[in-house]
Amino acid sequence: MFEEFVLAASTADLDAEPRAREDADAMEFRMDLADDPLDQLDEYDGTLPLVVTNRAAWEGGEADDIGRYDALSSALVHDAVVAVDVELAALRGTAPSSERSHATALREAAREEGVRVIASVHDFESTPETAALVDLLADAAAEGDVAKLATTAAAERDALAMIEATHAATAAGHRVATMCMGEPGRHTRAVTPVYGSRIGYAPVDAADATAPGQYPLSTLRTLVDGLRDGGREAVDGI
Ligand SMILES: O=C1C[C@@](O)(C(=O)O)C[C@@H](O)[C@@H]1O
């Protein structure tokens, strides 16, 4: 998983899976936004593999700081779960509440289950300079199997910084997932996969976006596939 690009359909309702199948490669189950997430996992009989996320309130989600780890470790044992998202700040011990031991224990448990760890960073205010983005990706790559970085673009140059950082981190051998939030950075969701980004996120239902600036699922599928495979349809012979 994540050797190739994976389009994850984000949802708080696993019953939505059949509607995502045509376009998505996986589901991102936002446990922090879900009703009875563990019951939903027990009842899940879909075909798409699951990435589980239980985003802490201090990182823009709705889960409580420590309690969320119990739910995540229960989630790991489900066969459908192939990856777990853990915030880089939790893994490095820089989160507001001291949860490093919980985060690293979860990572161990994930590895024992053969579940990939996505070390994630979100910046809801801005997009730092390219060099800082590259450093964040290297830090996240040192902690997880995939380094995920989502920042807020206020201008086109922020999108350029994210694309350039994606290229640099991929060239340095890191497995990354990158995107900008917000309107000026929307196109990065389609473009960074060309430069190595391995995960894209889009809501199953456009009304239930899990981040600002997401494309509808089928739109992102078309854009990503078109840009990656577009070369095959290019006009040659000139
Ligand atoms: O971290 C991410 C990326 C995301 O924030 C986005 O910008 O698409 C959406 C979230 O659901 C996911 O957990």
List keywords for this structure.
8 strands, Type-I_3-dehydroquinase, 9 helices, TIM Barrel, 238 residues, alpha/beta
Task: Annotate the secondary structure layout.
Blueprint lengths: L5 E6 L5 H4 L5 E5 L6 H7 L6 E4 L13 H10 L4 E7 H5 L7 H13 L3 E8 L6 H14 L2 E7 L3 H16 L4 E6 L6 H4 L7 E5 L13 H17 L5
Parallel strand pairs: 1-2, 1-8, 2-3, 3-4, 4-5, 5-6, 6-7
Helix pairs in contact: 3-5, 6-7
The structure holds 1,3,4-trihydroxy-5-OXO-cyclohexanecarboxylic acid.
InterPro entries: Aldolase_TIM, DHquinase_I, Type-I_3-dehydroquinase
Protein name: 3-dehydroquinate dehydratase
Subunit structure: Homodimer.
Kindly describe this structure:
38% of the residues lie in helices and 20% in strands. Helix 2 links the parallel strand 2 (26-30) and strand 3 (50-53). The chain has 238 residues and is an alpha/beta fold. Strands 7-6-5-4-3-2-1-8 form an eight-stranded parallel β-sheet. It is built from nine helices and eight strands. The protein has one domain (6-223): Aldolase class I (TIM Barrel, Alpha-Beta Barrel), CATH 3.20.20. The radius of gyration is 17 Å and the shape is globular. 1,3,4-trihydroxy-5-OXO-cyclohexanecarboxylic acid (DQA) binds next to strand 2, strand 6 and strand 7.
DSSP helix fraction: 25-40%
Query: How does the helix and strand content classify structurally?
Result: alpha/beta
- Mean of the pLDDT scores? 95
Instruction: Please report the distance between the alpha carbons of the first and last residues.
Output: 38 Å
| Total discrete domains | 1
Regions with little confidence, pLDDT below 50 for 5+ residues: none
Q: Write the CATH homologous superfamily.
A: Aldolase class I
The fraction of residues in strands falls at: 15-25%
Using the CA coordinates, give the radius of gyration.
Answer: 17 Å
Element-level helix/strand string: EHEHEHEHHEHEHEHEH
Shape estimate: globular
CATH architecture: Alpha-Beta Barrel
Total helix count? 9
Q: How many β strands by DSSP?
A: 8
Largest sheet properties: 8 strands, parallel
Q: Within the CATH hierarchy, at the fold level, what is the topology?
A: TIM Barrel
Q: Major sheet: order of its strands?
A: 7-6-5-4-3-2-1-8
The oligomeric state is single chain
Bound molecules: 1,3,4-trihydroxy-5-OXO-cyclohexanecarboxylic acid
CATH class term: Alpha Beta
